[in-house]
Amino acid sequence: MLVLLALQASLQVTLALPKDNTQSLGSLRILDTGVGHRSTPVPRWRTSLRNLTTHGTNASILQQFGPEYAPGSPALPIGAVSLAYSPSTSYLYAATGQGIIRTDVDGSNPKLVIPEKPGQIVSVTVAEREGKLYYGTEYEGLIKSADLDGSNIEVVRNISQGINWDGMSSFMPANAYAGGILVDDEKGWLYWSASRALYDGSVLRAPLHSEGQEQVLADGIDMPGQLRLVGDALYWAEKGRWSSSPTAIKWFDLSQLRKPQPQSQPPSLTSPPVAFTTQTVVHSNESAAIFFEQDYTGDKQTLGIQSFVVYRDGVEQKIWFVAQSSGRTMFGKLVEITWRGSGDGRKAVLEVLTGDTKDVGVPVGLEYVS
Ligand SMILES: *[C@@H]1O[C@H](CO)[C@@H](O)[C@H](O)[C@H]1NC(C)=O
Ligand SMILES: *[C@@H]1O[C@H](CO)[C@@H](O)[C@H](O)[C@H]1NC(C)=O
Ligand SMILES: *[C@@H]1O[C@H](CO)[C@@H](O)[C@H](O)[C@H]1NC(C)=O
Ligand SMILES: *[C@@H]1O[C@H](CO)[C@@H](O)[C@H](O)[C@H]1NC(C)=O
């Protein structure tokens, strides 16, 4: 009995420590776009779904997509851009070059639920309460929804601001499209991040089920991507457009929108969001050792943050992110952010959980599975 009590006491202490042993934590899933370069010394590999622990260990490939290796011919990746997890159904949705592929949480039973031409689908998310998928398309500039089995596809919003083709097949991006997408189906908002055209580099939202005007929440972002919402904190990844562009994770406190503003209206294109502030979680300029790598020719590359996931329990918050550079040499990393100290002294601490590209592939999507 005494032993048991002592054990319980030590367990509580362990849980209360800023960095616990995370015995109870789940695991991570990474979507890897694969490598199709011909150049050496880069090996080629297929588009894959991977798992690993929240410590970055025990990485393994759960599933590979697209054509099998044929004898004598190299691996052919189909490419991928985004991963979404549905906790209520335990399905994973991978937006790939063939369309959206659904798998079980262990990668089994892959099924192409929304076939599309390569490059069309650029983002995907799951609305858990509605039981719907939402995704963004590049050539059409649309946001669409579908049931979780891929049926009942509908156009939710046309954000294209004009398309660059004559209605027949084409591979020209629309003037604008949703590089990242998020649905708050509790409060009825659709969020997306837009690159190109009028909304280039902004994070926007609009009512989910009405024609209401979009609001620009943040702008001036260099290739905004993945979005996450935790309480009132809306996070996004700034991927960076070029191999030397800075990259970051930032957030916007949505409670600002409820406070009285100088303008009577929420921000729109005609009233830019000058009154609103954004916060930076991590910026590549401040963590050179993590974000800069030299390839075999000596060229310096900046790894761009492609995806991240926010973990919160009663005690602490963590963010895991994946960053990669797909230049002549592929670099892929999984990094954990924790917070130390309190008040003004509270600061983010970054730790590379694995910097081995063989473990994480060329990561484009990251999910936490409990
Ligand atoms: C990865 O998945 C395999 C197959 O389901 C499983 O055996 C293994 O424990 C998983 N590893 C992690 C770290 O989740
Ligand atoms: C990770 O690998 C180690 C050693 O191979 C093994 O003992 C451990 O059970 C694995 N953990 C998970 C979660 O798969
Ligand atoms: C979306 O809007 C563009 C004009 O910006 C238009 O050309 C296109 O046909 C619209 N697409 C759909 C599916 O309505
Ligand atoms: C990051 O560094 C680049 C190059 O030195 C500089 O141009 C840019 O202003 C910096 N950005 C921030 C936010 O510090």
TrEMBL record:
<feature type="signal peptide">
    <location>
        <begin position="1"/>
        <end position="16"/>
    </location>
</feature>
<keyword id="KW-0732">Signal</keyword>
<dbReference type="InterPro" id="IPR011042">
    <property type="entry name" value="6-blade_b-propeller_TolB-like"/>
</dbReference>
<protein>
    <submittedName>
        <fullName>Uncharacterized protein</fullName>
    </submittedName>
</protein>
